[in-house]
Amino acid sequence: MSETILQLDGVSRSFGGLMAVGDVSFSVQAGEIFGLIGPNGAGKTTLFNLVSGITPVSAGRIGFLGRDILGLAPHKVAGMGMARTFQNIRLFAGMSVLDNVRAPMQAFSRTGFFSDLLGLPASRAQEAQIMATAMDLLNLVGLGAKARAAASSLPYGERRRLEIARALALRPKLLLLDEPAAGLNLAEKAELSDFIRDLRSRFDLTVLIIEHHVPLVMGLCDRLAVLNFGRLICQGRPEEVRCDKSVIDAYLGDSHAAPRT
Amino acid sequence: MFLENYGFLIVAIVQQALLGMSLWYPLMAGQLSLASIGFYSLGGYIAAIMGTSPAFAAWREALGPALYPVEWLIALAASALLGLAVGIPALRLRGIYLALATIAFVQVLNVVVLVLDVTGGAVGLFGIPQPFESRLGYLWFFGPLLAVMLIFSARLTRTVAGRSFMAIREDELAAQAMGIPTTFEKVRAFVIGCGLAGVVGAMSAPFLNTWNARQSSFDASVACLAYVLIGGARSVWGPLLGAALLVALPEVLRPLKDARLIMNGIVLVVACIYLPQGIAGLLASLRRREAA
């Protein structure tokens, strides 16, 4: 019996007359890697924005760690332990690689503004701690050597990794990854599955992932939810989802379907 | 000799650089504010009233020259409080709307100042006591303040709060998603700028000898912004470099007579097109090229 980390009940969101997400319910259990798949425009990213509090819901309830988070400011939701990446990568481009990872750690700051300015011992100790943690995270994603470079100078694949490191700096319990494999080459995609599994065990994470690359999703996720036109059409283990008639029609097509016996 | 002749100019550069810095802090958090000149005006009135009003005669008697630091502290507190009151609603606005709201705030303040008796109405306050005989003497006021603020700025970029400011400047939505309380940090950056502008105003009232509503004109607001943008909004040195160039330029170009205003405009246009990171950005890239 595992703990429910994220619970969605009848979540809907309309933009004008367009229903982007309609009546979606599912729950994510602690330690799971939960995949969210569906065709373009199915409402996956909108759902991420609803969960992280960036877009308000039109109807429904969202619970995170047993607490109703509707109406909570995004930074408060993040502070509870929910970190995310963005489909189109939103780094702090003008800041150094190191500062990108250090910035979210303000959430754990125990020292005051003036203490920091004067460099009092408590602040210096905290800065050393922040620095050590940031370098650990950068080394983990293979960017330790580029700590002082501008984030905008990184090539695409490294930007994706930096964004994950930045999210991990929040010490999240739930990590939302929005198409982490987009734009990566085949070798990088292959590494990504192992990397995400490694993160889960290392940081005791629960992962909610949007991904288009079907082999990656099927191999990585413990469970999947499939969205189509904003509605949840199927959820279950990858082998169940793969055989579902409505999923094959809407999204997978015949080639990805499991061979029928 | 040089220092005597150019004393006013040198002090004016430092004073204007400090005003530019008061816009630099909100800009560090990505907020374009033009409110500084209003808080400069407020600080100036506080110093002018305390320096001339009969109500404060006992204070002047008792404190002597210590009255000046007291004026600065009162101006700092008043500006920070008013900054908090203006900033909390205004910083819900974004980009150009925040700029417009801060311009409107300055206009409201100017009208209030014109109708009140205590501020001397349209005539303003004059005969403000001067602690120094020469203009250059005021460097004892503005110089240490500039040094303190440069150190403050440099330290700020290495603190938890400074990184939050910059994160908001780079991407407000991502900053929010990374747990940064964006409204709180924007108000904090704004209030720092307001407090500084108030203190600069309180120091400037004796320097200029008179104080009136013309101190907080729209032109002065735009000039402060120009120092930061021309000097470089991303460098601690930006406001000082910008103020040095833009305040000295009209003096250097004095032989050109009226044509110097044209030159001033040309410098602004050229800098905006060719120096997106300001003079500080240009110097940094030259140094990088030398190192490479």
Q: How is the topology of this model organized?
A:
The complex is a heterodimer of chains A (261) and B (292).
Chain A: E1 4-15, E2 18-29, E3 33-37, H1 44-51, E4 59-64, E5 67-68, H2 74-81, E6 82-84, H3 97-102, H4 113-118, H5 121-140, H6 156-168, E7 174-178, H7 186-203, E8 206-210, H8 214-220, E9 223-228, E10 231-236, H9 238-243, H10 245-252
Parallel strand pairs in A: 3-8, 3-9, 6-7, 7-8
Antiparallel strand pairs in A: 1-2, 1-4, 4-5, 9-10
Helix pairs in contact in A: 5-6
Chain B: H1 2-28, H2 36-52, H3 57-63, H4 67-90, H5 96-115, H6 139-156, H7 160-170, H8 172-177, H9 182-208, H10 218-231, H11 238-252, H12 259-274, H13 278-291
Helix pairs in contact in B: 1-6, 1-9, 1-10, 1-11, 2-4, 2-5, 2-9, 4-9, 7-9, 10-11, 10-13
Describe it for me?
The complex is a heterodimer of chains A (261) and B (292). By secondary structure, chain A is of the alpha/beta class. Chain A has 10 helices and 10 strands. Chain A has helices at residues 44-51, 74-81, 97-102, 113-118, 121-140, 156-168, 186-203, 214-220, 238-243, 245-252; strands at residues 4-15, 18-29, 33-37, 59-64, 67-68, 82-84, 174-178, 206-210, 223-228, 231-236. A 6-stranded mixed β-sheet of chain A has the order 6-7-8-3-9-10, sandwiched between helices. Chain A has a 4-stranded antiparallel β-sheet with strand order 2-1-4-5, covered by helices on one side. Chain A is globular and about 65 Å long. The model of chain A has no long low-confidence stretch (mean pLDDT 91). Chain B has 13 helices and no strands. Chains A and B meet through helix 2, helix 4 and helix 5 of A and helix 6, helix 7 and helix 8 of B.
Spans of chain B with pLDDT under 50 lasting ≥5 residues? none
β-strand number of chain A: 10
Q: Could you give the distance between the termini of chain A?
A: 33 Å
Derived structural class of chain B: mainly alpha
The quaternary organization reads as: heterodimer
User: Shape of chain B from CA axes?
Assistant: globular
Unreliable stretches of chain A, pLDDT < 50, 5 or more residues? none
Helix content of chain A: 25-40%
- Run of helices and strands of chain A: EEEHEEHEHHHHEHEHEEHH
Fourth-tier CATH superfamily name of the domain at 4-97 and 170-256 in chain A: P-loop containing nucleotide triphosphate hydrolases
Biggest interface, CB < 8 A:
A-B, 38 and 26 residues
CATH topology grouping of the domain at 4-97 and 170-256 in chain A:
Rossmann fold
| CATH class membership of the domain at 4-97 and 170-256 in chain A | Alpha Beta
How can the largest sheet of chain A be summarized? Answer: 6 strands, mixed
In what order do the strands lie side by side in the largest sheet of chain A? 6-7-8-3-9-10
Secondary structure: number of strands of chain B: 0
